[in-house]
Design brief:
Elements: H1 15-30, E1 49-57, H2 66-87, E2 94-98, H3 100-109, H4 114-126, E3 129-132, H5 154-175, H6 184-187, E4 191-192, H7 199-208, E5 213-214, H8 220-225, E6 250-251, H9 272-291, E7 299-306, H10 315-332, E8 343-346, H11 348-361
Parallel strand pairs: 1-2, 1-7, 1-8, 2-3, 3-4, 5-6
Helix pairs in contact: 2-4, 3-5, 4-5, 9-10
Length: 365
């Protein structure tokens, strides 16, 4: 290919045309890039998920010797100390409750005893020292026989509640040298129980003894839906899964013992992987409600453990060491694009306070 001859005329773009072609390019370069229209901002409609760490002391076998009971008591104090140290970096309040036999030991040791010191530390985390019982009643010093789960009368169930309540109150008084930081009825206002099984009797005892906070939501729900109830509720005497706004007591949702497989946990899998799965399931439902403008509700779930579950080497210890940091690292400081906080730890009493405030906001709705 040769060059054109010298006498061949060269073609040139007219100056005016070149300027006309250049101007649109210059104009475009001065404009910001095109963007899709920004959708209107939607603020979240949901408050945080209220997680509860439920820790309580069960009754030991009454057939053991007094020395064996004291040995268990000392071991449980060590376990509770471990738990408080483990939870402290993650700012987890302990939703504590106790049976009468454990509190009788606290009272026997006095205000300078190790039990009193543990109760003070528990109170400092969440200001709750609630009442727990199975079927036991106090016959004499350190002697708590049982009524069993069948054939008891209302008067016997009432005795079970009265004995548990009086000894927990005595333990609180002992821990604080007779001068508790709040009224006794407020500190111990959380009731977990095994009898009576009759709902109407139980609700009558809640009212009679001034309890407004419980954790008795039937676990059948887990079997039906593979997760727990996700909100507190005021239960009907007919069925505790049916809400009745006229009921004076509110039940808080808490799972079974963390770390245990279903075969050892009333067919409810609370191993660490499944706890994480259930929390993610809860979170995704909460997030959908928050981002779609669903009506506000109080979201709640929780983990449970007994003092005897966290002996060194037990699976509950390992699961706590796994799940609590996992929740902290991924959700404790998470804020959604809607501006809503995802999660916080609370006691049973805290959850009910949030629920009652929610009821007040929507009263008559």
């Amino acid at each position: 290919m040769g060059f054109p001859a010298q006498d061949t005329p060269m073609r040139a773009t007219p100056p005016l045309l070149a300027l006309c072609l250049l101007c649109p390019a210059l104009h475009a370069a001065q404009q910001p890039p095109l963007r899709s229209p920004t959708p209107p901002e939607r603020r979240g409609t949901q408050g945080p998920i209220h997680m509860v760490f439920d820790m309580h002391c069960d009754p030991w076998s009454n057939n053991q010797s007094l020395a064996q009971k004291w040995a268990l008591y000392d071991a449980w104090l060590g376990n509770i100390d471990w738990l408080l140290v483990e939870l402290q970096p993650y700012d987890v309040p302990v939703g504590f409750s106790s049976v009468g036999p454990f509190m009788e030991m606290v009272v026997s040791q006095g205000s300078s005893g190790d039990g009193a010191a543990i109760l003070q530390r528990i109170y400092q985390t969440g200001a709750q020292i609630g009442v727990h019982s199975h079927t036991e009643w106090r016959q004499s010093a350190f002697n708590w026989p049982t009524y069993g789960y069948t054939g008891y009368s209302f008067a016997q169930a009432e005795r079970n509640w009265l004995d548990a309540t009086s000894w927990v109150e005595a333990g609180i008084l002992t821990a604080f040298g007779g001068n508790p930081p709040r009224p006794l009825a407020d500190i111990r206002d959380h009731r977990e129980y095994h009898i009576p099984l009759e709902n109407d009797w139980a609700l009558a005892l809640f009212s009679q003894l001034g309890y407004s906070v419980g954790a008795k939501i039937p676990k059948e729900f887990y079997g039906w839906y593979d997760h727990y109830v996700w909100n507190p509720l005021r239960p009907s005497a007919v069925n505790f899964l049916v809400e009745d706004p006229s009921t004076s007591a509110t039940m808080v949702s808490v799972g079974r013992v963390i770390g245990l497989e279903g075969s050892a946990n009333q067919d409810q899998d609370m191993t660490a992987p499944n706890v994480k799965r259930m929390f993610l399931q809860l979170y995704l439902n909460w997030r959908h409600a928050d981002r779609t403008g669903a009506p506000e509700k109080i979201w709640n779930w929780g983990l449970a453990v007994h003092a005897h579950d966290i002996d060194p080497g037990e699976p509950s210890r390992t699961a706590i060491e796994d799940v609590v940091p996992w929740l902290y690292e991924r959700f404790s400081n998470r804020v959604e694009p809607t501006g809503s906080r995802v999660f916080e730890w609370d006691t049973h009493q805290d959850v009910v306070a949030e629920f009652e405030a929610w009821e007040a906001r929507y009263r008559g709705a």
